[in-house]
Design brief:
Blueprint: E1 3-11, E2 16-24, H1 50-59, E3 62-64, E4 70-71, E5 79-80, H2 93-127, H3 144-150, H4 160-177, H5 186-215, E6 226-229, E7 240-244, H6 249-261, E8 268-272, H7 274-282, E9 287-290, H8 295-301, E10 306-309, H9 318-324, E11 328-331, H10 348-356, E12 361-363, H11 367-385, H12 393-398, H13 408-412, H14 419-427, H15 432-440, H16 446-450, H17 457-464, H18 466-471, E13 474-477, H19 485-497, E14 503-506, H20 517-528, E15 532-536, H21 537-544, H22 554-557, E16 567-571, H23 577-590, H24 599-609, E17 612-616, H25 622-633, E18 638-640, E19 649-652, E20 662-665, E21 671-673, E22 680-684, H26 688-698, H27 706-724, H28 746-755, E23 766-767
Parallel strand pairs: 7-8, 7-10, 8-9, 10-11, 11-12, 14-15, 14-17, 15-16, 17-18, 18-22
Antiparallel strand pairs: 1-2, 3-19, 4-5, 6-13, 19-22, 20-21, 20-23
Length: 777
């Protein structure tokens, strides 16, 4: 990123130089310089934003939920950390959990940074370093996170290399801090976790703007094509190539090869998880099987002739599962070699022959070669595999005769589905309970491992649900990628002023406590209430797999604009950069704040002014925690579903502690009470009712105008009454003046305020930063 020239001693006729160090950050061609001034923290190191982290962690201290009482990180252990005890190295439980928090976020950030490396390197090799960054004609702020964090304005693919170098350096430093004998403070662990989350968000943007620019993915257009999604949407009469993971490169090369040969229409190309989203962004003829919860189910069906696995969210047993049903496997990533022979340097003819004869699972680390091999092998293998495709329902269901109703499967289900009862009912020819479980199952397979009778429980659930699987055909709007600057200009003011009640992003994995219907009902409710709803990844897939009472999916019911009452699918996990980038762009485009290396100021603006909340109802992966933690550092609250407690950490505020909610009034420098808005930064909810009410509460900001706060309070109070039947018990904390009270609710609210001793407060121009104070009185 920078070149250093040192001159110890130089004597010449022009000059005598001693001890000169010259640092050149980057050579810039004439006319390319960016006029925006550089802020205080371009390319921040792991302590550059520590002061900001300490401010937000003082307000939202970490709340830990350990899964174990012991530390087993070094050979002194294992050490008991209960009841205030310290381990042999001196660490206590709080610091131990802080270390877990950092490790989790570093793992997530490393995944996305590696993904970004792979896709950028692939695209540079294919299109060259000078290929332009182009994310749409209506997008001038092309890379808000890169501008904000790195302080550069990327114009071509080659410009992304220095950002990747920065990511590598920082991830290495953060990883070193987790070693025994390094960091020791829980707050500093959390500061580093916040840094890891920020790096994760940066890597997301690098990956997605690169592939949008070079692969021709949608560039922010609202009305993207609709494509098929669902296990029943896959035509098993054709050769089927299934892509699983997150890197679109191998799958895109499959499509390229088939198109070049004129055989694309005769071969089914489909995906699971985020590769599926990006395949459909690349080609509207590709299909999505579903989210990660459908991975094991679909692979076991044997419908796929070829399984391509790349990186992230690939089951550790998927190769064995595929082999057991005769599906050939091609691994494509350095990160997922799966113990397979590396045939990368073999010719396509040799690899195809090996796949179809004695080596049914191989590693090939060349996307173009994978494209040819997968297409040819699928076409050759499919005719011989017709009898192997699909579950043998009667044979599978016959296994239920061995069920003793021991309930080991139920006890081992992460979401407590009553699988034992359902399997035993199937033994008596009643398949309805298993069919209900199919709708809610997260597809983990723990029930199989738990069964002492060796019943293939997950396959039994599938077999009982064959009719439902055939009907599982929906449509999803293809991920659109960036949020356009023109949209930000339209909604920036209403969001900041509170006239649009907020932005709600449904993100994350499919580890839901009760199926995807709850997720869809929440999204539907917020869209009806004219929030801007954004979604991505497995959550976006699951929203498509739901129809309302009129038989419409949410993508058919609501437009795809970034506007009130719309639902925006941005695409895969890496497209999460765009809703995060949108809140940054509001600060830039609407408020005219400088982005360049100016992280602290923009985060302060977002925390105090922009009503955005993310809901990761099914969070499962370390990447989900890293994305959430990055959003937290920017001032965006995140709500996790009940499984999120296993991430072991939340950032919770205490609304009754008034001192925690003091802010500086930028107009005069006085310290004033701003109210608990937002009340939490990372919160775990147990039910959808709690989630919806909390989301309506967390969009409130100290800077809301009276009209904006009135709209937000109206939704909060109305949702609380609708879902719980009562007035919120904390409504007095969010009413700053009587003008905040919704007109139609004054008769209900004012008596409550009087009863609770409410007093009006000043509405400040809020900031947590001394340097943002305009003048002091």
């Amino acid at each position: 990123m920078a070149t250093k020239i040192s001159i110890k001693e130089l004597d010449s006729q022009f000059a005598k130089i001693r001890g000169l160090d010259l640092v050149i950050g980057k050579v810039v061609e004439a006319g390319e310089e960016w006029s925006e001034p550089v802020g205080p923290t371009p390319y921040p190191d792991i302590t550059a934003l520590r002061g900001w982290d300490q401010r937000i962690l003082a307000r939202y201290p970490p709340f830990y939920s350990p899964l174990s009482d012991f530390c087993e990180f070094c050979t002194y252990g294992k050490c008991d950390l209960t009841a205030g005890k310290q381990g042999a190295c001196g660490i206590d439980m709080e610091a131990h959990q802080g270390k877990w928090s950092l490790l989790t976020c570093v793992m997530g950030a490393a995944c996305h940074a590696t993904h970004a490396h792979h896709i950028v390197e692939y695209l540079i090799k294919k299109y060259g370093e000078d290929h332009p960054i182009d994310v749409g004609s209506e997008v001038d702020v092309e890379a808000p996170l890169i501008r904000l964090i790195a302080g550069i304005k990327p114009k071509k693919l080659g410009d992304l290399k220095e950002v990747l170098t920065y990511l590598d350096n920082q991830v290495t430093q953060l990883t070193s801090a987790t070693a025994t004998g390094q960091e020791q403070s829980p707050i500093d662990y959390e500061s580093k976790a916040l840094h890891a989350g920020m790096l994760d968000n940066l890597a997301l943007e690098v990956a997605d703007i690169a592939q949008v620019s070079a692969l021709g993915l949608p560039k922010g257009n609202s009305d993207t094509p609709r494509v098929e999604i669902g296990m029943g949407a896959i035509d098993k009469s054709k050769p089927v190539i299934l892509c699983v993971g997150h890197n679109v490169a191998p799958g895109s090369e499959v499509i390229n090869y088939l198109e070049d040969k004129g055989t694309y229409g005769s071969v089914e190309v489909a995906g699971i998880c985020c590769t599926a989203h990006d395949l459909t962004r690349y080609s509207k003829n590709a299909k999505i099987v579903g989210p990660i919860s459908r991975q094991l189910m679909f692979v076991r069906s044997g419908i796929a002739d070829i399984l391509i696995i790349d990186q992230e969210c690939v089951r550790a047993d998927v190769v064995d599962e595929a082999r057991s049903v005769g599906t050939r496997v091609i691994a494509t990533s350095d990160q997922v070699c799966a113990g397979l022979p590396d045939l990368t340097n073999k010719t396509p003819d040799e690899i195809v022959k090996a796949l179809l004869t004695d080596t049914p699972a191989v590693l090939v680390r060349n996307p173009a070669k994978v494209g040819e091999v997968a297409a040819r092998a699928a076409i050759e293998a499919a005719p011989q595999r017709k009898s192997e495709k699909g579950l043998k329902d009667e044979q599978v269901l016959a296994n239920t005769s061995r069920c003793t109703l021991c309930r080991e499967c139920t006890e081992n289900c992460p979401i407590n589905l009553d699988i034992g009862y359902a399997v035993n009912a199937a033994k008596k020819s009643n398949l309805e309970p298993l069919q209900k479980i199919f709708q809610e199952c997260i597809g983990c397979g723990r029930c199989d491992e738990a069964c002492p009778q060796s019943i293939p429980v997950l396959s039994t659930i599938n077999a009982a649900s064959t009719a439902k699987i055939k009907e599982e055909k929906f449509t999803i709007r293809v991920g659109r990628g960036p949020i356009r600057d023109t949209e930000i200009r339209n909604v920036g003011r209403p969001i900041v002023m509170g006239e649009i009640p907020g932005v709600i992003a449904f993100v994350g994995c499919s580890n839901y406590p009760g199926g995807n219907e709850d997720l869809a009902k929440m999204a539907d409710e917020f869209a009806k209430r004219r929030y801007i709803v954004v979604t991505s990844g497995c959550a976006a897939s699951d929203l498509a797999r739901y129809r309302d009472e009129n038989g419409q999916t949410l993508y058919e019911k609501y437009p795809g604009d970034f506007d009130a009452g719309c639902i925006v699918n941005t695409g895969s996990c890496v497209s999460n950069a765009h809703p995060i980038g949108a809140v940054i762009k509001i600060a830039s485009i609407f408020a005219k704040r400088n982005l360049r290396g100016n992280f602290e100021e923009i985060s302060d603006y977002i925390l105090n002014r922009i009503g955005a909340v993310a809901i990761a109802w099914g969070s499962q992966h370390q990447k989900a925690m890293a994305i959430a933690t990055g959003a937290n550092r920017l001032g965006v609250p995140v709500i996790l579903g009940p499984q999120g407690v296993k991430h072991r950490r939340a950032y919770l505020g205490r609304s009754e502690d008034n001192e925690k909610w003091m802010v500086l009034n930028a107009r005069d420098g006085k310290k004033v009470y701003g109210g608990p808005a937002p009340e939490h930064l990372l919160y775990v909810a147990e039910t959808i009712e709690e989630t919806m009410v909390m989301a309506a509460r967390l969009v409130m900001r100290p800077n809301d105008t009276p009209k904006g706060r009135m709209i937000k309070l109206s939704n909060y109070i109305n949702l609380h009454k609708q879902l719980y039947g009562t007035m919120p018990d904390d409504v007095q904390r969010f009413v700053r003046a009587e003008t905040d009270i919704p007109v139609t609710m004054k008769d209900d609210v004012i008596p409550v305020l009087k009863e609770r001793g409410w007093k009006p407060i000043e509405i400040p121009d809020p900031t947590l930063l001394d340097r943002m104070v305009l003048r002091r009185e």
